[in-house]
Amino acid sequence: MSSMKNTILSPHDIGGALSRNRLAVAPMTRVTATAQGMPTQKMLDYYLRFAQGGFGLVITEGLYTDRAFSQGYPNQPGLIDEEQALGWAKINQELQAHGALVFAQIMHAGALSQGNRFRTHTVGPSAIQPVGEQMSVYYGEGAYAMPAEMTEAEIAQVIQGFADTAARAVDTANFDGIEIHGANGYLLDQFLTAHTNLRTDRWGGDMKHRVRLLIDVVTAVKERVGHEVPVGVRISQGKVNDFNSKWPNGETDAHTIFGALADAGVDFIHVTEYEAWQPAFEGGKDSLITLARKCAPGITIIGNGNLHDPVQAVEALDAGADLIALGRGALSNPDYPLILSTNQTFREFDASILQPIADIKGSELALEQERQSH
């Protein structure tokens, strides 16, 4: 137990940003901002629990990047202007004072948008209606809208939005790093995915072409802030509306994506699977973590996916991860690093905190702890 604990609690340098341990809070959509996308006191209290609980890195929920098509949900926070950035600066100052790094996850929802105050329709790489139903926990109802195929001008606007938001995140909000959301079925993942990207121009075709937009976003963001803070990307196969999705060419696609990201100079790659330790593809033996490590030597790999058991967390670290990002494990144990360091018992996850709306609320135990702390 002592060796396992020492491994998880050892520090790690992420492209020049030093995390005090190998534990990160995974980005989780919480829809608790104002209708105008401003951070709230409730959000500060939510994030502060993780910093006070000893996490080395906190990655924010996805922050939308423009006044066009990027917003995905009602009450989603944005980072599109000075006022929003100053609101995040107050949160970051508090978290950093407690020893945590804070990375901004910046995202564009694309065809999966189900609540955008700036537009009445959605866009995607192709006019393909997303499968599945909108998520009720984020105020959605019924089928997704049919998106319009994006124009060259709109694609350029996406790239500019990511770059401008990253600069705002660093220069005004004082984030310690940038995570570009290329996972879970949102816009950049829609371009990566064969059945949602049917384009015949330079943005479509095989995976080497479909990864182009993601790489162009990485390049634009790195040109703006890469000399100041680490820049990385979150990648997944599964999507919020297509849970079992797999890359059709298996490890070949993985090598193409991870290799392109490494060549683009990312500081970290954050891979997420339902069970991060499982082989990524049928008939194979390597997890997505291991594949990312093989394709991107020397780059920080963050692994996410049911790794709240310290034994499995260490196995993921042994398999190639440098940090472990916790979702449900962090929600039920915002003081996870302190629990681990003092050999206490971890609390079970209470799924009721995500119903009926996945805003910020605590389990009865968490609420009781909050009451006792005041």
Summarize the structure.
The protein has 374 residues and is of the alpha/beta class. It has helices spanning 2-8, 41-52, 82-97, 152-171, 187-192, 207-210, 212-225, 250-263, 288-295, 310-318, 328-332, 336-341, 364-373; strands at 12-14, 17-19, 23-25, 57-64, 101-107, 123-124, 148-149, 177-181, 231-236, 268-272, 300-304, 323-326. The longest helix has 20 residues, at 152-171.
The rounded Rg comes to 19 Å
Give the helix/strand class: alpha/beta
CATH topology: TIM Barrel
Number of beta-strand segments = 12
Strand order of the largest sheet: 3-4-5-8-9-10-11-12
CATH class bucket = Alpha Beta
Strand content: 5-15%
Low-confidence sequence ranges:
364-374
Number of helices in the DSSP assignment: 13
Counted up, domains total 1
Query: Rough shape?
Result: globular
Biggest sheet overview: 8 strands, parallel, barrel
- Average pLDDT confidence is 95
**End-to-end gap:** 33 Å
* N to C succession of SSEs: HEEEHEHEEEHEHHHEHEHEHEHHH
CATH architecture: Alpha-Beta Barrel
Q: Share of helix among residues?
A: 25-40%
**Corresponding CATH superfamily:** Aldolase class I
Pfam families: Oxidored_FMN (PF00724)
GO molecular function: FMN binding; oxidoreductase activity
Organism: Pseudomonas helleri
InterPro entries: Aldolase_TIM, NADH_flavin_oxidoreductase, OxRdtase_FMN_N
